[in-house]
Structure formats: C-alpha cells, structure tokens
C-alpha cells in the first residue's frame, strides 16, 4: 500500500485540494525568494527574513523530512449579508470572514500526522505558523501556478484558498509543473489600487493594502489612503479581477462566513476596550492588528467616503487613548471638513499626533 496514496485519499476526503512535492526546493524559487527579501519587498515583515535558509529548506530543522503534502482549503464564501444596525462601512478580505482558520485545520493535521505514524512514517503539519514556503511547494507539486498577482491559482478553483502543509518522511518524485495559464492577461496588475504588483509573479508589500491594513504598526501614509479606498482589512482586488475566480464558489464544507466579520460594526473599534475587543473577535483574523489598528483602518475608510455623516465616529477617534488612532483621526477630520476639531489636535500632548494634525491641515491649503 502506497502511504502517499492513502494520505492523499484521506486528505481529499476531508475536503482539501492536495499536491505532493519533494522537501528540497529547486534553486530558482529559492533564489527568487532571496532576491525578494534582499530588495526589501517584504516591507516591515522582518520575520520573513529570519532563519532564511531554514525557511527555504525544512530538512535543516527536521532531517527526516523527505516530502511535503500541500493542503488547500477553499474559502470562496458567499457574502453572508450585512447585519442590521451599527456603522457597516468598508470591506474585509474574504479569508477573514470566518473565525480562526488555524483551529479548523488543527484536527485534520493531527489526524494526518497520526496516519503517517500508522503507515510507518513521520509527519508534522503547519498552517501559517511555521517558516514554510507553502506557495512554492504547491506550485512545485503541480497544484497550480503562481499568477501575476503573486497568488497560487488552481485551474478549477481559482485562488481563494488557504494553504497548509504536512511534512512527511515518505519519498516522492518530482512532478511536471502546472502550465502558467495567465497568458497575456494583466487584469490583476491594473486592478491593484496601489501598484503593488509588478506583474512578474511577485508582490511589493511596501505598496500592498493588505500589508498596510494588517501588518503595519504605525500610520498609513497619506499618499496611500486613496488606494486603500474602502478596504478595512486586507484586500481582494487582484483576486476579484482574476478571470480564474469568475466561477469560484467553493468553500470548505461545514465552514460558514460570519456576517459580523464580513461586515463589522466600525463603532466597536472606538467604543470597546482592548480586552472587550479580544473577547468579541476571539479567534478572528482581526486580533492580528488588534483594536487600535482596526480603529486606524476604520478612520481611513470613513475619510475616504468624504461623507460628513461619519464625523461623530471620527470625533470619537480624536479622543481615543491611543496616539495612533488620534493621529489618524486628525487627517480624517480634515478630509471630512472638520478643520476646527483637527486644529485642536495640534495641541495634543503626544508630539506625533500634533505633527500629523499640522501636516493634515497644511495639506488642505
């Protein structure tokens, strides 16, 4: 009995897309990743450059690993609808419409690890919490190709899926790479609101809305606000433009999107304490940026509406305990026409807030 076939059948029965790849990545994707890091395209995500060679070769940490079973969980969820009440402005990337996807993966990875042992081998699962280049392994295993939007694209399911890996001790032979089906299409490149896609299959995180709204800890640069548009958390613009996602409607069985995550009430980011925020959004991707940065993002989105009807919420931001929120509120107030309130923030005890208020008012002329 071929252990790989048994593991594949079990994984697919659990709803995953699957692909096998040797543990040793060929040099081209390794060199491309090194060049991407050397070029600073990872922006402020310093963790991506730590233990670089171990990230590119898991056998350095686990000498017994010979192959990688890549698992893809589809998340092309239907819109669950907008809940009643609250301030429901802004968009959230589709993968974040459910509670912790790590928790959904965990029992399946544990079961597959146990099956590896039963089959006479070893296995160790990872989903987003280890230094593993999942996308490179998925492409190496023929699951799909890396598109111009830097996403892995599956010919039948598009790019709306989350990747996990199972490192195993079983030998596997290389398979032919999946043909790149992007052709001459550059729709994703044109759809990126901040020009983060050079079109060569890489991403410049320094200009990526997802980076700025999720990973970045400070102020979002004013020159990027228009590009952020109505994206509250993450961005799916390049995926929405991709023709391979036109028919993407599959998602993991038993997982349903949460309306409060797909269309959150922005007022919660200004009225909840950090602890209450953690309770309300427990297990969600919102915990990565946390209350403060979600409030920051909300202020950018509200300012981009140019609708003074939202000034009451922006004024709450101007009184927030955190200077990052107050500084962002200063510019939002100016853009929504409340220069008088923004002027008050020029006297804020935190010099960063005062400086941002001054710059925002000067930009108005």
SSE string: HEHHEEHEHEEEHHHEHHHHHHHHH
Query: Which of globular, elongated, flat, extended, rod-shaped describes the shape?
Result: elongated
What structural category characterises the helix and strand content? alpha+beta
Distance between the termini: 75 Å
Organism: Marinithermus hydrothermalis (strain DSM 14884 / JCM 11576 / T1)
Keywords: 4Fe-4S, Cytoplasm, Iron, Iron-sulfur, Metal-binding, Oxidoreductase, Queuosine biosynthesis, tRNA processing
GO molecular function, one term: metal ion binding
Domain 4Fe-4S ferredoxin-type: 173-202
Q: What layout of secondary structure does this protein have?
A:
Blueprint: H1 3-13, E1 17-22, H2 27-38, H3 52-56, E2 67-74, E3 91-92, H4 101-118, E4 123-126, H5 134-140, E5 145-146, E6 152-153, E7 161-168, H6 187-191, H7 209-215, H8 225-228, E8 231-233, H9 237-241, H10 259-262, H11 268-271, H12 274-280, H13 290-305, H14 311-318, H15 323-335, H16 339-344, H17 351-363
Parallel strand pairs: 3-8
Antiparallel strand pairs: 1-2, 2-7, 4-7, 5-6
Helix pairs in contact: 1-4, 13-14, 13-15, 14-15, 15-17
Protein name: 4Fe-4S ferredoxin-type domain-containing protein
GO molecular function: 4 iron, 4 sulfur cluster binding; epoxyqueuosine reductase activity; metal ion binding
Keywords: 4Fe-4S, Cytoplasm, Iron, Iron-sulfur, Metal-binding, Oxidoreductase, Queuosine biosynthesis, tRNA processing
């Amino acid at each position: 009995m071929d252990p790989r076939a048994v593991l594949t059948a079990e994984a697919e029965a659990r709803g995953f897309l699957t692909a096998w790849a040797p543990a040793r990545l060929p040099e081209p994707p390794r060199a491309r990743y090194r060049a991407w890091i050397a070029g600073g395209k990872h922006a402020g995500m310093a963790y991506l450059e730590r233990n670089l060679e171990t990230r590119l070769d898991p056998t350095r940490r686990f000498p017994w690993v010979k192959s990688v079973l890549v698992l893809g969980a589809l998340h092309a969820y239907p819109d669950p609808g907008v809940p009643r009440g609250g301030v429901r402005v802004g968009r959230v990337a589709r993968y974040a419409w459910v509670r912790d996807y790590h928790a959904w993966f965990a029992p399946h990875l544990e079961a597959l690890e146990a099956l590896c042992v039963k089959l006479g081998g070893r296995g160790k699962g990872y989903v987003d919490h280890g230094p593993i280049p999942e996308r490179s392994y998925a492409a190496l295993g023929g699951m799909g190709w890396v598109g111009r939007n830097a996403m892995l694209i599956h010919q039948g399911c598009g790019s709306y899926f989350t990747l996990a890996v199972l490192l195993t001790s079983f030998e596997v032979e290389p398979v032919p790479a999946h043909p790149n089906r992007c052709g001459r299409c550059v729709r994703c490149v044109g759809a990126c609101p901040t020009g983060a896609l050079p079109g060569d299959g890489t991403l410049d995180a320094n200009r990526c809305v997802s980076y700025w709204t999720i990973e970045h800890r400070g102020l979002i640069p004013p020159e990027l606000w228009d590009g952020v548009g109505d994206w509250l958390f993450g961005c799916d613009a390049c995926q929405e433009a991709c023709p391979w996602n036109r028919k993407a409607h599959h998602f993991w069985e038993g997982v349903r999107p949460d309306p409060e995550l797909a269309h959150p009430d922005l007022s919660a980011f200004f009225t909840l304490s950090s602890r209450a925020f953690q309770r309300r959004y427990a297990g969600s991707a919102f915990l990565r940026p946390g209350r403060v940065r979600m409030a920051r993002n909300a202020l950018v989105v509200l300012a981009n509406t140019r609708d003074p009807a939202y000034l009451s919420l922006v004024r709450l931001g101007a009184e927030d305990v955190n200077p990052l929120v107050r500084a962002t509120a200063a510019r939002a107030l100016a853009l929504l026409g409340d220069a008088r309130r923004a002027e008050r923030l020029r006297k804020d005890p935190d010099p960063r807030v005062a400086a941002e208020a001054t710059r925002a008012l000067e930009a108005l002329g």
